[in-house]
Amino acid sequence: MRAIDGFEGQATTTAALKLLALLFPRPGELRAAHWSAFNLDEGLWTVLEARMKMRRPHRVPLPKQAVAILKDVQQLTGHGTLVFPSIRSVLSPMSENTLNAALRRLGFTKDEMTSHGFRASASSMLNESGFWHPDAIERQPAHVEENSVRRAYARGEHWDERVRMMAWWADRLDELRAGNLK
C-alpha cells in the first residue's frame, strides 16, 4: 500500500491499484467499469452480469475509502462513460497491461504481485483473521460454489456481513499502510 501511494504514474492508474486492494475485483471488471454502475451516495457498485466472468450480476459494498478514491477519479473521468478510460481513447478501457506494468514499475516481480493477486491476498488475510464467515469472504470476489447441490441451496449474498467486512478490510489496509500492523 505504501508503494502504491508512492506511484508516480497516471492518477487513474494509482486509483485503480488502490481499488484493486480495497475491493479485490477481477482486474478486467474494474478496468471496464462504467460510472453508471456506481452509487457513491449509497456506497454501492453494481457490476452487470455482462461484465462478470460467471455472467451473474454482482453487488460490491464500497467502504468510505473506496468512495473517496472514486470521487477523486470522478473529477478526472466523470465526464465520460468509463471510470478508467485508456489514455489513447476515452471510448476504450484502460489497457489490460497497465496495472501489471505499474506493479513492475513499483519494483514487484510477477512472482511477488499481480493485479489479480490482490484477490488472493485479500481472501487469505480475511480468512486468517477469523472474523468473517467463509461464505461472506467468497461472495465478495464473486466466487461461485463449486458443489452444485450446495450452490443450488446456498444463494445468500451475506450482504450485511460483507458491508461490515469491507469497512474492516479498508481500515485494516489503512493500518498496514501506516505500519501499525504486520
UniProtKB/TrEMBL annotation:
InterPro entries: DNA_brk_join_enz (IPR011010), Integrase-like_cat_sf (IPR013762), Integrase_catalytic (IPR002104), Phage_Integrase (IPR050808). The keyword Hydrolase does not apply. One of its GO terms (biological process) is DNA recombination. Keywords: DNA integration, DNA recombination. CDD domains: INT_P4_C (cd00801). Residues 1-170 form the Tyr recombinase domain. One of its GO terms (molecular function) is DNA binding. The keyword Membrane does not apply. Pfam families: Phage_integrase (PF00589). Belongs to the 'phage' integrase family. This is Phage integrase family protein. It comes from Chelatococcus asaccharovorans.
